[in-house]
Design brief:
- The protein is mainly α.
- It has one domain.
- The chain is 85% helix and 0% strand.
- It has 1 helix and no strands.
- The protein is rod-shaped, with a radius of gyration of 22 Å.
- It starts with a helix and ends in a 5-residue tail after the last helix.
- The relative contact order is 0.07.
Length: 53
């Protein structure tokens, strides 16, 4: 059986890794979402001016 301090450290590392991974997934999603909205916004402005893409 591993000492308690080792288990606490291991648990902390797993929690940190999970948090970082979640943060990364969120930033990827929001980056994609922002790009999508920006693209739709540009297309809408061009369509409004009479220049259809």
């Amino acid at each position: 059986m591993a000492p308690a301090s080792t288990l606490v450290l291991l648990n902390k590392n797993i929690a940190n890794f999970t948090h970082k991974r979640w943060e990364n997934q969120c930033s990827k999603f929001f980056g994609f979402f922002t790009a999508l909205l920006d693209d739709r916004h540009k297309r809408g402005r061009l369509r409004h001016r009479g220049k259809l893409i």
